[in-house]
Design a protein that fits this description.
The complex is a heterodimer of chains A (about 1000) and B (about 290). Chain A is mainly beta and about 1000 residues long. In chain A, about 10% of the residues lie in helices and about 30% in strands. Chain A has five domains: about 270 residues, Beta-galactosidase, Chain A, domain 5; about 90 residues, Immunoglobulin-like (Sandwich); about 110 residues, Immunoglobulin-like (Sandwich); about 270 residues, Metal-dependent hydrolases (TIM Barrel, Alpha-Beta Barrel); about 130 residues, Sandwich (Immunoglobulin-like), CATH 2.60.40. About 0% of the residues of chain A have low confidence. Chain B is globular. Classes of the chains: A mainly beta (about 1000), B mainly beta (about 290).
């Protein structure tokens, strides 16, 4: 071998040695990889947050993990979801619940598979499976957590689907391990495997979590491995430490995620209800997480990371809980953890606030701690909030803050900052305590209110007080919000958190005749008393001054607007168990009583409720009949709709009654994901009709809710919107896979299954938005014209005191009263459409087939076409309304078109606060004059004059109205009325209210034989 | 192994007529001087080579030249180039692009043996997972390949190769990927303007972490036909097939255009389009400048 050859071989040997060194260096990863190299991930991941240690009385504290066997062990609190079969981690500090797992449901599942899966699955909300954190409560406290689950991106297939759970006890540590993969039901990669270890040690104030992700698939992923916190809009408000953050968050932009991402050390959240719990989360191996935070959902996780096939991720964090109002309790846990994990010196800041009464309530006093801007300013976008807390009933507060920094404490009251911020510096020494000077703020103004109810026949003594600024210019000065959250709801004056209990927003519930005292912003207000549309309203002017208590005494009278043989019902009611409100049960039941709604379909999102304890506590069982139900709220976009670029959800459907059973997942409500409506109906019918027994075939009711509601974070809320049905176009006669509106005719569960159109009722009025309700009405009329005769309902969809007031609108179910109430017959009347829907006016339509109202007459019914002799048949219309409810126009609608508009002869009460002038109109008209010449349906409605409307974007849906009377329909919402306007008082009682009532259709058979729909 | 033994394989691969027709004269063409004038050499072009494009292995589209069929012809030289891969799945809201600046150098050790070192010196990858996007730039993999010509005659040569994948990738957090790829390649050139190239290899990769190792095994084969219609331009058309633990991975038509700038320098542009199988990549392409002598 010559020297050249030797040289080459030496070069090769050098290269080989270098490569081997490199290989060995690469094989030493920076983190413990746990199970990442085991493609099946069957090993046990190492402990999470190993260097973190909480201390307590170790003799008393023991961590354990067990499977729930009795519903009584569910944590307290309206958001608690634990059911038999779920998994509990518990020590002497907290209780955490992980929901059980079940095999994945294929998208093409048969009805039998769906029924079987529904029995097995414990899944909740947005997560495609169990294995998620659904409850976390301090022992003795309440659960306010909706759900924390794992995601790797923003589309459904990026969510983790767990399929197995195992438990271990490792010494004093209780461990639960959930294993799974990306959600295959929505297109996720089964080879991207995920294992999450939940663990709890003695003294831990929460649960430690370690998630390992292994990309065993064929392609690389961009992964944003995170915990998704489902806040659901209004159940909790999130606080993120950071410059310009706190309770302020960049708007979530799912397309441009960068614009929403922030790096922060911890997130905290609380619900702002009386018995509150705060939560916090932080990473254990990185001082900062990457987060996007939105009122609906937040993601707290690792940076977005390229994960090559074969590689993986490890995500370690802790989720803690603390009792008490404000987020300070949980933040203190997070600060203590960061002291241990990252060596950050932390001090305790204590103080006391002195007020004569009312402390322990966020409405009266709370405090936000922040670092001022670099220039010493207090601009919200430049300061760095660190914590918020609410002094306890004694006025004491305590919070942990970093050592050696300059802070300011800003006090808040009634949703607004008050007083100058107080500057202080924390000691530089770790674990020091700083005692802040005693705060003696000015004493807030108060109102002592009492409302009496006069007149005969009042079922109770409950009423509502509503405050409205006398001068519109004062609105900004007295409005407030939860540190900026919900400011769009413009509560003025702000009396309390919008979605919490009473007082909330600008409203207060009063029970019996006892006076109630509450704090209110300084100002001059109209104080309105209201008790539903069958009572008068009253008002008085009240001036609130600092340190003084103003008296309000009002009296309202019971009226007789509705027939004695009608019963008020609201089929769309949410309470604190819904993921998007924290409204307490007692106040919810009190709102039924105040507004005199006798029958309630309790339709919380994806969970069943009975309000049983609250009904008993308020002695209301004889006055309010609750049919437990559910609002089926699919949240996982799974339906491919031709023409839609993204998978869709199918909107919302109510169903009742559903036996309330806390031992079952979701209290007995079925799981509603990955299904078309007909498949949901197939699941629902056996449940809601189970009470019928041998008496009847049908018992329950399935309702299509707000069919043209929009979408939120890509989730459709109205089915007609999902299938892009232009209601001005006739429905197709047959199903076609390429024609979405024809999906209504499909039986997705097979030929024996329900069709997507086989709901019983359709929500025509929902809340107060007139144009939205006109769109719903367009859909209803389209169905009727196509021969799908469904009853129309009017529901409040109430979530709180203020935004969607209870019972506005409501249904008057004809042929029943409180004393004759029977749920079987009641639901039969509902399905038949023997109803009037109204937010004030009562509309009675009676058909005399032969023109003789002394003989046989008929009211509304979608089940029974009435044979008529057109030449003689007449329709009688009677309209009544409380004096404060304006009625200007009556419209008789035949086959969807206004055949007669009546504006003359309608009486108008002279005193809106009086008791006279209830009867507004009585008259009759011949069917011939209405242009009825063939089979038809007739609906009568009455209320304010309907503004000119138009469809501005040619989708067939009305979206603009001429609210300002300039002859051009270009407004989306009516302007706020001024005092003296027709709408002023009604708008004070129900913001945005457009008085409107309608009767269900009278179906007239002119031709004899089978009834033919107009578009048939 | 007896260096004449692969004639049986040559018969199988090239057809009996061609192999047998050359068998006897080839007895005299095994001297080094004949190799220089044999199937690998052309008067005014760089040595013959197949389409040197790879879809990597173990789900990683580029691991230097791991998973590619090397030239059966020995040479010394280097190449500088760029590669790019594309995967778009619109309905799944997924897209991936990778691009590498690749360096390769080959040193002939003797007349029958040569060694190649290849590296993805700069690697850019981006994955679009809906709106979750990552785009790391880092150092890619390195390979070291030892080639040994097993049998040669006037028109054909069969070469064994053994390639090692070295874990120089910097983008992984928990794993180091190594691999070994034994295989053979061949060239058959019945005419100065025509040649056929092919090869079979058995790549094995191991993803190693402290917790364990996971393996992939993706046997693959290529076959390319090259035509030099007019100097300096050469067109190649071929196909690659690969199987793996997931079953049939892909069948990929591929093509290349090569310009032989001088007797030693060339530029080539190559592309492959995986079809069928479980592979999701849409296309892969490369542009290389090299010199071989």
């Amino acid at each position: 071998m010559d020297s050249r050859a030797r040289s080459k071989r030496a070069t090769l040997r050098g290269l080989g040695a270098a490569a081997l060194s490199c290989a060995l260096a690469q094989c030493a990863p920076s983190k413990d990889p746990g199970c990442l190299a085991n493609p099946s991930l069957q090993c046990v991941p190492p402990p999470a947050c190993r260097s973190l240690e909480y201390r307590c009385d170790a003799r008393r504290s023991r961590a354990r993990v067990f499977r729930m066997t009795r519903p009584e062990t569910r944590p307290r609190g309206l958001d608690a979801l634990a059911s038999v079969g779920d998994w509990v981690l518990q020590n002497d500090q907290v209780t955490a619940v992980i929901d059980d797992v079940a095999p994945a449901l294929p998208l093409s599942a048969s009805t039998a598979q769906r029924v079987q899966h529904n029995r097995a699955t414990h899944s909740h909300h947005l997560a495609p499976s169990g294995g998620t954190l659904i409850d976390l409560a301090p022992n003795g406290g309440e659960d306010h957590l909706n759900q924390v689950y794992q995601i790797t991106g923003i589309v459904p297939r990026d969510a983790v689907h767990y399929t197995s759970i195992e438990t271990r006890e490792e010494g004093e540590t209780a461990v639960l391990i959930a294993r799974g993969f990306l959600d295959v039901s929505t297109g996720g990669d089964r080879e991207v495997r995920v294992v999450t270890r939940y663990e709890m040690r003695p003294c831990d104030p929460g649960v430690r979590v370690r998630t390992e992700l292994h990309n065993g698939g064929r392609i690389a992923w961009s992964s944003y491995l995170s915990d998704a916190w489902f806040f659901g809009d209004r159940s909790q408000t999130a606080f993120v430490q950071g410059r310009g953050l706190g309770f302020r968050h960049p708007q979530l932009d799912l397309v441009d995620l960068d614009a929403s991402l922030v790096r922060a050390p911890y997130l905290a959240a609380s619900s702002h209800t009386g018995s509150d719990t705060s939560y916090a989360t932080f990473l254990c191996d990185d001082p900062l997480f990457h987060s996007v935070v939105d009122p609906t959902i937040a993601a707290i996780g690792l940076p977005r990371t390229y994960v090559a096939p074969g590689d993986g991720l490890v995500f370690e964090r802790m989720i803690v809980a603390a009792s008490g109002s404000g987020v300070g309790g949980a933040i203190s846990h997070a600060m203590e953890a960061r002291r241990q994990l990252f060596g950050e010196p932390v001090v305790t800041v204590r103080g006391t606030v002195e007020l004569p009464r009312g402390l322990g309530d966020e409405r009266v006093a709370s405090v936000v701690f922040y670092e001022p801007s670099a220039s010493g300013g207090d601009e919200p976008e430049a300061i760095t909030p660190w914590a918020e807390t609410v002094p306890d009933a004694s006025g004491a507060y305590s919070v942990m803050l970093p050592a050696g920094r300059s802070f300011r404490a800003q006090w808040w009251r009634l949703g607004r900052p008050f007083g100058a911020p107080q500057s202080f510096s924390t000691p530089a020494t770790d674990a020091a305590t700083l005692e802040l000077p005693v705060q003696r703020p000015t004493v807030p103004g108060r109102i002592r209110a009492q409302i009496t109810i006069t007149g005969e026949g009042s079922p109770g003594r409950e009423a509502e007080l509503i405050l409205v600024p006398v001068n519109e210019a004062d609105r900004d000065a007295v409005s407030g919000s939860v540190y900026g959250y919900f400011s769009a709801e413009r509560c003025a004056p702000y009396l309390g958190p919008t979605h919490g209990g009473s007082p909330g927003c600008n409203r207060v519930l009063l029970r019996n005749t006892a006076p109630l005292e509450f704090v209110a912003p300084v100002g001059t207000y109209w104080a309105y008393a209201q008790g539903g549309p069958e009572r008068t309203i009253a008002r008085t002017m009240v001036t609130v001054r600092e340190g003084e208590t103003a008296e309000v005494a009002l009296s309202i009278a019971q009226l007789r607007v509705f027939p004695s043989t009608a019963i008020s019902a609201d089929f769309h009611v949410h309470g604190g168990r819904s993921f998007d409100t924290s409204f307490p049960d007692n106040d919810r039941v009190l709102s039924f009583l105040v507004n005199d709604v006798a029958v309630i379909a309790a339709t919380d999102h994806d969970v069943t409720t009975s309000y049983g304890d609250a009904l008993t506590a308020l002695n209301a069982r004889a006055r309010v009949f609750v049919q437990p139900g559910v609002e089926m709220t699919p949240l996982i976009p799974s339906q491919r709709i031709p023409g839609a670029s993204l998978p869709r959800t199918i909107g919302h459907f109510n169903a009742w009654p559903i036996p309330y059973d806390p031992s079952h997942p979701r209290n007995g409500a079925p799981w509603d994901e990955l299904a078309q409506p007909g498949e949901l109906f197939d699941l629902l019918r056996p449940i809601i009709d189970s009470g019928a027994g041998a008496r009847r075939e049908r018992f329950g009711v399935v309702q299509l809710n707000h069919p043209y509601a929009g979408s939120k974070i890509g989730r459709d809320e109205g089915y007609f919107r999902t299938i892009r049905w232009n209601p001005t176009q006739p429905l197709p006669a047959e199903y076609s896979p390429s024609n979405p509106p024809s999906f209504l005719l499909l039986s997705p569960g097979g030929s024996n299954g329900q069709r997507n159109v086989d709901f019983d009722t359709i929500e025509v009025m929902q809340g107060t938005d007139l144009l939205e309700n006109l769109r719903h009405q367009q859909g209803w009329f389209g169905l009727l014209n196509a021969g799908h005769l469904r009853a129309g309902t009017a529901d409040s969809d109430t979530h709180s005191l203020a935004v969607e007031p209870m019972g506005y609108p409501r249904n008057l179910v004809l042929g029943m009263s409180r004393t004759t109430y029977d749920p079987f017959n009641f639901n039969a009347l509902v399905r038949e459409g023997r109803m009037v829907g109204t937010n004030g006016p009562y509309v009675e339509a009676t058909l005399a087939p032969d023109g003789d109202f002394g003989a046989t007459t008929y009211g509304p019914s979608v089940r029974a076409p009435r044979s008529v002799n057109v030449a003689n048949a007449r329709l009688r219309v009677v309209v009544r309304a409380a004096p404060w409810v304006p009625v200007e126009e009556i419209r008789i609608i035949v086959n969807g078109r206004v055949a007669r508009s009546i504006t003359e002869g309608i009486s108008r009460p002279t005193d809106p606060f009086g008791v006279d002038g209830i009867d507004r109109f009585t008259g009759d008209v011949s069917l011939a004059d209405l242009g009825v010449t063939r089979d038809a349906w007739i609906v009568v409605e009455a209320g304010l004059r309907m503004p000119l409307t138009r469809d501005s974007d040619n989708d067939g849906l009305l979206d603009r109205a001429d609210y300002d009377g300039d002859g051009v329909a270009n407004e989306e919402r009516p302007p706020a009325p001024r005092d003296g306007d027709t709408r002023f008082h009604g708008n004070a009682v129900v913001p945005g209210m457009w008085p409107w009532g309608f009767c269900n259709p009278i179906i007239v058979n002119v031709n004899g034989g089978a009834w033919e729909a107009p578009n048939q | 192994m007896n260096r004449h033994a692969p004639y049986a394989l040559a018969i199988t691969l090239f057809g009996a007529d061609a192999a047998l027709a050359q068998a006897t004269p080839a007895q005299e063409q095994l001297a080094p001087t004949v190799v220089a004038a044999g199937p690998c050499a052309r008067p005014r072009s760089a040595p013959r080579a197949p389409i040197e494009l790879s879809l990597g292995a173990a789900g990683v589209p580029s691991l230097a030249d791991f998973g590619s069929t090397p030239s059966a012809c020995g040479y010394s030289g280097f190449s500088v180039g760029g590669r790019m891969g594309l995967l778009i799945a619109t309905s799944a809201f997924y897209g991936a692009i990778d691009a590498e600046a690749a360096l390769s150098g080959t040193v002939r050790i003797d007349e029958d043996s040569w060694v190649t070192l290849a590296i993805d010196a700069v690697r850019y990858r981006t994955v679009i997972n809906a709106s979750v996007v990552t785009a790391p730039i880092d150092l890619g993999a390195t390979t070291l390949t030892v080639h040994h010509a097993l049998a040669t005659d006037a028109d054909a040569q069969v070469t064994l190769f053994l390639r090692a994948l070295l874990p120089t990738e910097l983008g992984n957090r928990f794993v180091a990927r190594i691999g070994l790829e034994p295989g053979f390649s061949f060239v058959f050139s019945p005419h100065r303007r025509w040649s056929l190239h092919g090869g079979v290899s058995l790549p094995v990769t191991a993803a190693i972490s402290a917790a364990g190792t996971s393996f992939t095994f993706t046997p693959r084969a290529t076959f390319d036909a090259a035509w030099l219609p007019v100097d300096p331009f050469e067109a190649l058309l071929g196909v690659e097939a690969r199987v793996g633990f997931d079953g049939f991975e892909f069948l990929a038509p591929r093509l290349a255009l090569r310009a032989h700038l001088t007797k030693t320098a060339y530029i080539d542009l190559a592309a492959m389009l995986p079809l069928l199988g479980v592979e999701r990549s849409l296309a892969r392409a490369s542009l290389n400048f090299g010199m071989r002598w």
